[in-house]
Design goal:
Blueprint lengths: L29 H9 L4 E8 L5 E8 L5 H16 L8 E5 L6 H14 L3 E10 L5 E10 L2 E10 L2 H19 L4 E12 L2 E12 L2 E9 L5 H19 L4
Parallel strand pairs: 2-3
Antiparallel strand pairs: 1-2, 4-5, 5-6, 7-8, 8-9
Helix pairs in contact: 4-5
């Protein structure tokens, strides 16, 4: 049939070759952002909605129960900014959490255990000094776990970014020694500015067999960026490392 109506596509028609779900163009990077968010600890699924001009208008996240919603929002903000350069207002991020039903006795035991584990790894001290070569710095991080003290040092460029990265690497190094199975590796560390305040953001890759997970954490440095980097690492790895630490 000729005429304008003949060019209309049947809604039920099959897509042409090369335009399957995996090959549909993604000009605004929506799928990349969603894949990033679903790699965060505790996130089950994520959907990013954009305007016709490609600006992020909504971010919807489904997460496991037990993680503070404010922390999840902050992790989403930091991950999008650090990895993709997207600055998203926290008011555009909505968090839905699944409900986990357990017997009351089990819940009470879980709460007691969680409270006791929250302080199982403690920040002890950090020292920043000159490195072995000019223009380098040496960062020594000390942590304690259930009475055991451990420290690690890392050398890096004597710059703000270099000192922050060295502090984060040293903290990850200590935690990696305490993990009975799996491994922890620092993926990135950055100083971000959100809502007129500085935050240290870290992403740590946790590997256990074939399982690989990106753990993210943030901390407000309060005048000491290197200390903030260590606290951000502890924030990122607390739950994962605790489950794999020797009894």
């Amino acid at each position: 049939m000729s005429g304008p109506s003949a060019s209309r596509q049947d809604p039920g028609a099959r897509q042409p070759p090369g335009l399957s779900g995996e090959n549909i163009p993604d000009p605004w990077g929506v799928r990349r952002a969603e894949n990033l968010l679903t790699s965060l600890e505790g996130v089950l699924s994520a959907r990013v909605v954009t305007t016709p001009l490609g600006e992020v208008s909504e971010v919807h996240v489904l997460a496991q129960a037990g993680l503070p919603a404010k922390q999840l929002v902050r992790n989403v903000e930091s991950a999008l900014l650090a990895h993709l350069g997207l600055r998203v207002d926290h008011r555009k991020i909505s968090i839905a959490q699944t409900a986990e039903v357990k017997p009351l006795e089990t819940l009470e035991q879980g709460v007691v255990r969680e409270k006791s584990l929250m302080r199982s790894v403690l920040f002890e001290n950090i020292q920043v000094g000159p490195g072995r070569r000019p223009g380098r710095c040496l960062v020594l991080v000390s942590l304690s776990c259930l009475g055991a003290h451990e420290e690690a040092e890392e050398e890096g460029p004597d710059t703000e970014r270099g000192r922050v990265e060295a502090a984060a690497k040293a903290a990850v190094g200590v935690l990696d020694r305490w993990v009975a199975s799996g491994a922890l590796v620092l993926e990135t560390s950055k100083v971000l500015e959100l809502n007129d305040r500085k935050l240290v953001f870290v992403a740590v890759q946790a590997v256990n067999g074939r399982e690989s997970l990106v753990l993210t954490g943030t901390a407000e440095p309060k005048g000491n960026l290197e200390r903030g980097a260590v606290l951000a690492v502890l924030d990122a790895t607390n739950r994962w490392a605790e489950a794999r630490r020797p009894a």
